[in-house]
Each structure stands twice: as C-alpha cells, then as structure tokens.
Amino acid sequence: MKNEFPPSAAQARTVFGFAKLPAAYATLVMPLLLSILMTFVVSAVSTLRSIGLAPGFLYIWLSAWALSWIIAFPTLLFALPLVRRATAALVMRD
Fold it and tell me: What residues form the membrane-spanning segments (predicted)?
C-alpha cells in the first residue's frame, strides 16, 4: 500500500538540503552515482599502480578519471537494463 500522505519537509530533502528528485529519475541517478564512484576508485588504483606517487599524480589521476567517467556513464545507461534482465534470468525470485 502506498503512503497516501505527502512527504514531510524532511523526507522531501536530501542530506545536502536539496529537494529530492521524482522517482522516475532513479534510472539516471543510480548509474550516475555508480559510474562516478567506480571510475574514481578504479582510475586511482590503476594510476597509482602505473606511475606510483609521482609528481603530478593528482592531475594524471583526475585526467584519467574524467576520461573513464565519460565512457563509463553512457555504457552503464546502455548496459544496466541488459544486466537486470540477465540477473533476472539467473536468479530465482522469492
């Protein structure tokens, strides 16, 4: 049963104080956040492994992160529906 009452002011705001987006935006927000987090961590590990803590590490890492994010976000938008279907085909529902 859906909640019939409008959300309170606290429920309608994010932790940062911004108004929450409608539920329809979840299909964009989830891959956005996932791609930012994953590319941030993976590019840091990859850059650190490649050049170590060399001078200019931060610039090189953030450049690598930006490029990888530009590729990862649209890839996730395309791939997530396929991955959801594949997961549903492999996992039993309760």
Answer: 21-46, 58-83
Residue burial 21-33, b: 16+ Cβ < 10 Å; e: rest: eeeeeeeeeebee
Containing structural domain, residue 31: 23-90
Please indicate, yes or no, if residue 3 is contained in any of the structural domains.
Answer: no
Interval 5-55: pLDDT, tens: 566 665 778 778 889 999 999 989 999 999 999 999 999 999 999 999 999
Cα–Cα nearest to 74, from 39, 42, 31: 31
Q: How many domains does the chain have?
A: 1
pTM, entire model: 0.74
Query: Does residue 64 belong to any structural domain of this protein?
Result: yes
Tokens of residue 3, six digits: 């909640």
